[in-house]
Design goal:
This protein is mainly beta and 479 residues long. The chain folds into 4 domains: 84 residues, Immunoglobulin-like (Sandwich); 229 residues, Sandwich (Jelly Rolls); 97 residues, no CATH class; 39 residues, no CATH class. 10% of the residues lie in helices and 38% in strands. It contains 5 helices and 31 strands. The strands form 6 sheets. Strands 9, 13, 14, 16, 21, 22, 23 and 25 form an 8-stranded antiparallel β-sheet that branches. A 7-stranded antiparallel β-sheet has the order 12-15-24-17-18-19-20, with no helix packed on it. Strands 26, 27, 28, 29, 30 and 31 form a 6-stranded antiparallel β-sheet that branches.
Amino acid sequence: MINSAPTSLGEGDTINIEYTPYNRTRNSVDITLAFPEGWDDYNNIDLTVPINVKRSWNFVATHLGQYSFAIQSDGVAAIHNIEIVEGSSIQYESNGRLYMLDVVGRDNVSPSRNIINYNTISPTSSAVAVMENFNFEEDGWLTDRDENDKPMLRINSTARVTYPGMNLFKLLSNPQYGATLDVDFKSRNVSTSNELLISLRTSNDNGIKIYENKVAVNLGGTNYEVEYKAGERIRIIVAIEPNTSSGRLVKIYINGILSYVGTYISTIDFRNYDTDLILNNGNGFVDIYGVRLYNTALNASQVLNNYIASLNDSISKGMVISKSDIYDENGAILYSKVRDSIPTVLFTIHSGSPSTAQNLPLAKGDKKYCSMRYDDPLNPEFNFEDTYLAEKKKPVLDVQGTSSQKYPRKNFKVKTNKGCRISNEVVNEKVFTFKKDFMDSSHANNTGLAKLAHRTYYTPVPPQMSYLEVSYEDGGETK
């Protein structure tokens, strides 16, 4: 008996069919979960299951059209029709993929529930992962109600999955290969934040370690770390470029966003990097939605596509796509696409600047003459251009702030020729400051305190008395 199932959804969404096996004379039955003809990326699933126990059949909608899905037993079939409409066509990156933990279609009553097949890396051979201390009731192959019934592998505090011979880093000893680890997971009921949940590391602690609230990468004694919020579903991708003169970058992405970039030393001997992939090294529940390993360093566009493909429904995917369509086919950011999605400012440095180098100012006083263009795709009435005028030596761009000028990312101030406005809440201005806040959020805190003081003790000073509409703080409220 089919209890519930969708009648229509988008391509790329997860289909969840809930059903309850029933037989008057037996305690268990043999069933087949049968996919429609033409769904060659899935195989029919044969199970022996207890009766009167509600179960779920989960898989991803990969074909457009009207299809019938059947649950067959003893010559009888329960059939459910689903219309799959156009949704996000973005799929997981498959080029260079060495391994994928496929949680779709797995079941806690299947005879093969404790078998995970894979191929070892460098050298390559077929192997079976070691699953320890699973009870396949509170843990194992389940679905996550909080994630739109997404299939997962739940690992409890004493359970563990070990993949011996996952020597991903050994690929880096060949300059034609990169390496990428892609993990989609959520931690639950972890006792301490230093509990190691997922690892791909050597005996002397080189490699990748994932905790409840941070990921740490150690290569040749150099450490890279990124923190994130604990207890939420997180997709971590560590992409390592080949060991070449133009590469050696380590990039860490959190939920599709580049969050750290570092460089490893060229003298590392990756031939000695023997590693096992271990899921759940610590105490606590870990939900694994997917694991992927690649013999290439995924670029920003591929990483984003993997993140989008993992989202639960076509609406969520569409929202991310609309905000993130800024890359070309090689993963490089295109200014034209960025300009069409968010407000942007473009500075073109002129050769007649006091400092001859045609780059952004490097220190306070390193002034650069420039032309300036502002584009707001949602409010095009505020778009403007200010062309460099030699007789006025404007616009002129300089580093803003004394203490912050030593940081890799600078604050900038630009003085323009003509007044312009970027919203209806401010008057025309000729001087603009761009705050990077590279070190911390103190500038934002200062802004908030200035607004609070203004609202509490505001007394206009003489210049404000002559023009009370002037915004008192960074394009915010007016008085």
